[in-house]
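Budget justification note: compute hours in this period were largely spent on complex prediction jobs such as the one shown. Inputs:
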Amino acid sequence: MKKLINTPAHVVAEAVEGFCLAHEDLVRPGDGGAYVIRQDAPVRGKVGIVSGGGSGHEPLHAGFVGKGMLDAAVPGPVFTSPTPDPILAATRAVDGGAGVLHIVKNYTGDVLNFETAAELAEAEGITVASVLVNDDVAVEDSLFTAGRRGVAGTVLVEKAAGAAAERGDSLAQVTEVANRVIANVRSMGVALAACTVPHAGVPSFELDEDEIELGIGIHGEPGRRKVAMTTADRVTDMLLDPVVRDLGLQRGAEVLLFVNGMGGTPLSELHIVYRHARIRLEEAGIRAARSLVGNYVTALEMQGASLTLLRLDDELRELWDEPVRTAALVHG
Amino acid sequence: MKKLINTPAHVVAEAVEGFCLAHEDLVRPGDGGAYVIRQDAPVRGKVGIVSGGGSGHEPLHAGFVGKGMLDAAVPGPVFTSPTPDPILAATRAVDGGAGVLHIVKNYTGDVLNFETAAELAEAEGITVASVLVNDDVAVEDSLFTAGRRGVAGTVLVEKAAGAAAERGDSLAQVTEVANRVIANVRSMGVALAACTVPHAGVPSFELDEDEIELGIGIHGEPGRRKVAMTTADRVTDMLLDPVVRDLGLQRGAEVLLFVNGMGGTPLSELHIVYRHARIRLEEAGIRAARSLVGNYVTALEMQGASLTLLRLDDELRELWDEPVRTAALVHG
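Corresponding output:
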């Protein structure tokens, strides 16, 4: 294992420290780096939004802290949920009096620890709502979940909820927006090569030179099946078709098309995947009204990609277009 | 070789097509994809800015086409210079009557082909100026160059020149700004593992499990020397020290600190490198007034990073802060 780290035990703390230094115009470390928080938090009268989960998926979640998106992100150890304590501390720190929304990816550890933190916060008088992101169509249950996993679609939930909070929506309204995104977003991923978790020191799975793993999660956990390596266009079909089918998309639908890199795949390859998905959607009469291509929800240096579709309505399109100022997503 | 491509011969054309579709609010393909050009080019009365070079360094250069940066980018085959024809066509297409600046990385092929294109454009009555980026302190000459190579510092040249053009500077003034950045920017890179060029199908060099290549270029060409793998902090020292020395930075200096990923290194590792560089600079009394961390000038999926410092003056800091709207860099 060759990595630009000092020791596995310090990876998360040092990366968070570096991240906060590099982006000190947007964020600061909370409680000595236990979480990353917006410079101007808590924002009086605004719903606070907290997300978090295991590290190793950067820029998720800290890269999405800033105006128009998250108020705080709580990083756990690599691929391991954060404990309730820092989640509770972040919840307290972002509470501007209008309540706090927890955006939780559907992994057993995340669900339990966010739930505990929410109960403790409620006991302190902070109103907390939670939403569970479960956009992965690949598997119903997995090593890490009951039900579907939360993967790249999380970025779109965080963006829409963040925009709703920023325009002054109530906690109930922000929660409704987040749940509407969750109901309309689906993803499917593929891995060409595994990543290596620093503490483990060896790749998390093995693939032959001529096979790929379809339906992979964002921790290198098994997917649907191993298939023979083929062209980018055929791989894209294998990602796109189950997503379109699961969403029940019909001719005339409008979507956000998001091609996400797993960390170790060149941007040019993501654009080759995007190109074919776009052509296929056009053939099906589905309009890709908005697009996102890049490394947003990664699995360290895993080689592979995922494809996400969000069915848009007028309000979700407007919320996507609202200005956002974070380390990893800026527009408007 | 496992890559999300259809065939090596189509990689660049399909990636460019996908890129232009994904970012159609910013750019369009010129001459059937021979180059990528700003949607609103040519901008009447504004100096046009063209860059380009071998593909495989994405998001460089097409990711920096847009308001406040490049007017057009000309992609060659992977790691191979574009021919004069598309450079000439892009030069014509961005000429708004105030002349065109070519930003050229110092590689023999790029230098020759941009020079030929500039002569042909001049013969058509377009005024062209050129600057040569040569920020790599690792080697004086290399497999691909006479003199120092142009690497990640190119992004900072493109940003400053683009901002100067956008505010209405003349061609002479924009050229002066670009040359001032070039005179004050230095970089040094390291590779942990090689990349594989699609046409070649095998990794471009070999490194043992316990060695890294110091002073690597952005094509996997040899660097200064192979050294034993060590901690991120020590590797950062090996990148930072020659850059600080070459720039002759003294206590009280102000810099932009740019940690660039080579494509296959997780963002968290880049932040660990940034953290130590920032601490070291502070100890030396050098202020990192601006920062950039991410994958901006890559070598496909190579694992490694480079460290760039730009000595700032008031004008260069202001030009960095000017608004920019491109696929890969947005701020202001």
